[in-house]
Design goal:
Elements: H1 2-36, E1 44-46, E2 52-56, E3 62-64, H2 69-72, E4 76-77, E5 90-92, E6 99-100, E7 113-115, E8 122-123, E9 145-146, E10 159-161, E11 168-169, E12 182-184, E13 191-192, E14 205-207, E15 214-215, E16 228-231, E17 237-238, E18 251-254, E19 261-262, E20 276-280, H3 284-289, E21 303-306, E22 313-317, E23 320-324, E24 331-336, E25 341-346, E26 352-355, E27 359-365, E28 368-374
């Protein structure tokens, strides 16, 4: 009898353990499903093939697409998907997204931070237009193109680095970005569109890459804080009123041997009679005779020679400042924005690499200053 009782008891224990294991498995599966499904499906709408995020309907303030199995697989954010959403404050774009559509985040007036994935290639027209609180923007190195007015009226953005694969800054791209104080161009940019940086009143200096060929109408109009502009040797045309209303301009450097052709009133309401123009020594007479360029020639303006050949090429990468195309013996100094000198040397090979911590610096090459951002 005791053996039979013992047998029954063991059978009950095994049955209980099996039930407990089954319950645990069901619970873990359910928990895994909940974890994978980071947001309720009522919050968003996907295309039938689940590759396009068509719209966001939820009231979430912080979104991480990578925390949701469905959203993580998305490779495109559709046109106007978040248009007018005033709830979202931050978003991590899914790691597989390659395209952000036109107006995708238009008028998201509470959006403060966006994290874009490596692999993103395109941002459409007005993609982040009028995101007035957006400040933290790092464009991935994979980015190839942006649409017109992509960051129009993003009044809080204070710095931007144009990735190396971008060849054109589109019309109105950063128009009315009033806080923008630092722009670093990739070395493949060839054109800057109409009104691209109009009303960026916090810019103090701008230095263009050697690759630049054309600047559009009103591209830097009303950038009243600009003190210094430096144009590369390949610039051939500057559009109408491109540099109009630069009330504080002090120095304008042009490395082109032939004076670039100009649209109408390029320097309208800019005090060129008080601005120092620097051009190649062999080209001084050409600039003195060229329409509008000759307006710099007054008794209060001097024309000096810049270094012969191409202008120095400044490039940045994480933790590194790279300078190429310098004349031997060029004096290079690097300062923090507080004025502390962190590096000083003379070039002996035409190129130089300097390891720096991330942050903003002033780089002086033969007393010509440029502001750079080290990522």
């Amino acid at each position: 009898m005791e053996k039979f009782t013992y047998f029954l008891e063991q059978k009950r224990i095994r049955r209980f353990n099996l039930r407990r294991c089954a319950f645990a498995a069901i619970f873990l599966c359910a928990a895994s499903s909940v974890f994978a499904q980071g947001y309720p499906e009522t919050s968003y709408k996907l295309s039938d093939d689940k590759t396009v995020l068509e719209s966001w309907k939820g009231d979430e303030t912080d979104i991480d697409m990578n925390s949701d199995a469905n959203l993580k697989g998305v490779n495109e954010i559709a046109d106007y998907a978040f248009d007018g959403n005033t709830n979202v404050k931050s978003i991590v774009i899914g790691e597989n997204v390659k395209t952000i559509g036109a107006g995708a985040f238009l008028d998201c007036t509470s959006l403060e931070k966006v994290v874009m994935p490596d692999g993103l290639e395109t941002i459409g027209r007005a993609g982040f237009s009028s995101c007035t609180e957006l400040k933290n923007v790092v464009l991935p190195t994979s980015l190839k193109s942006m649409g017109n007015s992509v960051f129009y009226n993003c009044a809080a953005i204070d710095k931007i680095i144009i990735p190396a694969e971008v060849t054109s800054v589109p019309d109105g791209a950063f128009n009315s970005c009033y806080s923008l104080s630092s722009v670093t161009f990739g070395d493949k940019v060839e054109t800057i569109g109409e009104e691209a940086f109009k009303l960026c009143s916090s810019l103090t200096e701008i230095s263009f890459p050697v690759s630049l060929k054309e600047i559009g109408t009103n591209a830097f109009a009303c950038c009243s804080g600009l003190l210094s502009v430096s144009l590369g040797s390949r610039v051939s045309h500057i559009g109408t009123e491109c540099f109009s209303g630069l009330s504080g301009l002090q120095q304008f450097s042009v490395y082109a041997v032939e004076p670039p052709s100009l649209g109408s009133y390029v320097f309208n309401l800019t005090p060129v009679d008080k601005c120092k123009l620097l051009v190649p020594e062999e080209s001084i007479d050409k600039y003195k005779e060229a329409e509008q360029w000759k307006d710099f020639m007054t008794t209060t303006t001097s024309i000096a020679s810049v270094s012969e050949g191409q202008m120095p090429l400044i490039r940045v990468s994480p933790g590194m400042l790279n300078i190429d195309n310098m004349n031997d013996g060029s004096a290079v100094s690097v300062y923090t924005l507080a004025g502390q000198k962190v590096y000083s040397a003379a070039s002996d090979s035409g190129s130089m690499s300097v390891a720096l911590q991330s942050g903003m610096y002033v780089v002086c090459i033969n007393d010509v200053a440029s502001k750079v951002l080290i990522p």
